[in-house]
Write a structure and sequence with these properties.
Layout: E1 2-4, E2 10-11, E3 16-17, E4 25-29, E5 32-36, E6 65-71, E7 76-85, E8 89-90, H1 100-110, E9 116-121, E10 124-136, E11 145-152, E12 161-165, H2 184-198, E13 207-214, E14 223-230, E15 243-253, E16 257-268, E17 276-284, E18 288-296, E19 301-309, E20 321-322, H3 329-334
Antiparallel strand pairs: 1-4, 2-5, 3-11, 4-5, 6-7, 6-12, 7-8, 7-11, 9-10, 9-12, 10-11, 13-14, 14-15, 15-16, 17-18, 18-19, 19-20
């Protein structure tokens, strides 16, 4: 919980804080509270005036936005909005080219210094993210990238990437990420599943390039997310002449072993047709579970996602959202 206050006192600090981008606010979690004040001037809230005769600005996106954040161990971050959140994920409703006036309005609404978001990874809220004032516009078709600072629970190691969104969209109680290690049974079952799902005479040549254990509630046993490739690599660049890629998510059943609930198989021979998937993370909103994958293509890496109703069947998964080609968030956050 956050309450703005003038009190600068610090009592019972329970959170790991990287200072630098805070307004005067009091944060409470678990019975303790921490008051912080940013010495910098308050953000500019001056209204953006459209002069008579100028074209009216297009409306801003209607609904909460989903942000991708690139994090460092000390809590500093860069983030950018990537989609709108509703019953599913949708492309942001913004003009194909962001004029200076529209960008100023968009940034003051969704990327304002001091704006606080919830930070989520591995299906849990792991803290908060507070936006800074160091902003980069970049391509005229793309939302800006802004600096931020993470406020994480004590003992929480920050992942390289996480998602963020406004309060009220997902679970609010902060939790530490529960580290899951791939079980030995995954390494044994993985090649068998790969051969069956590829259904190709060369499938025995498939090489595992990524594997991780993920939670798949309500299951108590970890699920397996894995990528197997024939004549290709988990990177941008040209594939072999008859390459195959396979991504699958498989849940564990005690009586049947690992059962695939989502698979993406591709056969291709050129960089233009290349599609290699790798599981990046998953998170929850109040109504959905969303799994986010990296999509490696010939010259770029984009994000794709599968959106499943929280109470929906686990075996009906498809790619429901694909990031636009012109504004790949991973590349922009890394630049």
């Amino acid at each position: 919980m956050k309450r703005c206050a003038a009190d600068r006192s610090v009592t019972v600090p329970i959170l790991v804080v990287s200072l630098g981008l805070w307004t005067a606010c009091e944060v409470e979690w678990g019975g303790g509270k921490l008051s912080l004040e940013d010495p910098s001037p308050p953000p500019d809230t001056t209204a953006i005036v459209v002069e008579p005769g100028e074209p009216e600005l297009p409306p801003l996106p209607n609904g909460p936005l989903l942000y991708l954040a690139a994090l460092t161990a000390d809590g500093s971050a860069r983030l950018t909005p990537i989609a709108q959140i509703g019953d599913s994920l949708a492309p942001m409703d913004i003009p194909p080219t962001l004029s200076e006036a529209y960008r100023a309005l968009f940034d003051s609404t969704f990327l304002a210094p001091g704006l606080e978001l919830e930070l989520h990874a591995a299906g849990r809220r792991i803290g908060s993210l507070v936006m800074g004032s160091d902003r980069t516009a970049g391509d005229a078709a793309c939302p800006s990238v802004t600096s931020a600072m993470a406020l994480a629970l004590p003992g929480q190691a920050l992942p390289d990437y996480a998602v963020a969104f406004p309060t009220g969209v997902g679970p609010v109680d902060p939790e530490l990420i529960v580290s899951l290690e791939p079980a030995r049974s995954m390494s044994i079952a993985g090649p068998v599943l790969a051969e069956r799902l590829m259904d190709d005479e060369r499938s025995f040549l498939a090489r595992r390039t990524a594997m991780k254990a993920v939670r798949l509630p309500p299951d108590t046993a970890a699920a397996m997310a894995a990528t197997y490739l024939v004549d290709d690599s988990l990177a941008v660049g040209p594939p072999g002449e008859q390459a195959i890629s396979l991504f699958f998510l498989a849940r564990w059943e005690a009586s049947r072993g690992y059962i695939p609930v989502w698979q993406e198989v591709r056969r291709y021979g050129s960089a233009e047709d290349k599609e290699v998937f790798e599981h990046l993370d998953w998170f929850r909103t109040n109504a959905t579970r969303i799994d986010v994958l990296r999509l490696f293509e010939g010259t770029r890496v984009r994000l794709v996602a599968s959106v499943l109703p929280a109470d929906g069947p686990q075996d009906r998964r498809t790619i429901d959202w694909v990031e636009g080609e012109r504004c790949p968030a991973l590349a922009r956050l890394g630049s």
